[in-house]
Amino acid sequence: MSCQENHFQTAAEILELGRHSFILRDDDNVYLNRFKNAVEVCTDELRRRVSAFIPDNITDFSDAELAEKLLNTDFTPSAKITRTESCQTNTTTRLVRKRQLLGQPAGPGFASGLARVLRSHEDIFEVKRGEIIVCDAIGPEMTLVVPLAAGIIERRGGMLIHGAIIAREYGIPCITGIPSATEDINNGDQLSVDGYLGIVTVRTLKANYV
Question: What is the pTM of this model?
Answer without folding.
Answer: 0.55
